[in-house]
């Protein structure tokens, strides 16, 4: 078992959580053309074809 220290002295990046939001873009009038589910499906279809 390893004890993970609170400080990072090993040179690798610490775990960081980012939360993406389109609020600022929507405030400027932008609107998505497809939803996330459709976007991921299109990505998976593309990767399957190019695979």
What is the string of helix and strand elements?
Answer: HH
* Secondary structure: helix percent: 25-40%
Mean pLDDT: 85
Q: In oligomeric terms, what are we looking at?
A: single chain
Distance between the termini: 38 Å
Main β-sheet: number of strands, strand sense, barrel status?
none
Q: What is the strand tally?
A: 0
Q: pLDDT under 50 segments (min length 5)?
A: none
Structural class: mainly alpha
Strand content: under 5%
Structural features, described:
With 51 residues, the protein is an all-alpha fold. The chain has two helices and no strands. The model has no long low-confidence stretch (mean pLDDT 85).
List keywords for this structure.
single chain; 51 residues; mainly alpha; 0% strand; flat
Summarize the structure.
The protein has helices at 23-27, 36-50. It is flat, with a radius of gyration of 19 Å. It contains two helices and no strands.
Outline the fold blueprint.
Blueprint: H1 23-27, H2 36-50
């Amino acid at each position: 078992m390893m004890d993970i220290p609170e400080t990072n002295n090993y040179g690798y990046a610490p775990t960081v959580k980012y939360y993406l939001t389109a609020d600022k873009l929507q405030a400027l009038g932008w609107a998505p053309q497809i939803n996330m589910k459709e976007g991921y499906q299109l990505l998976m279809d593309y990767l399957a074809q190019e695979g």
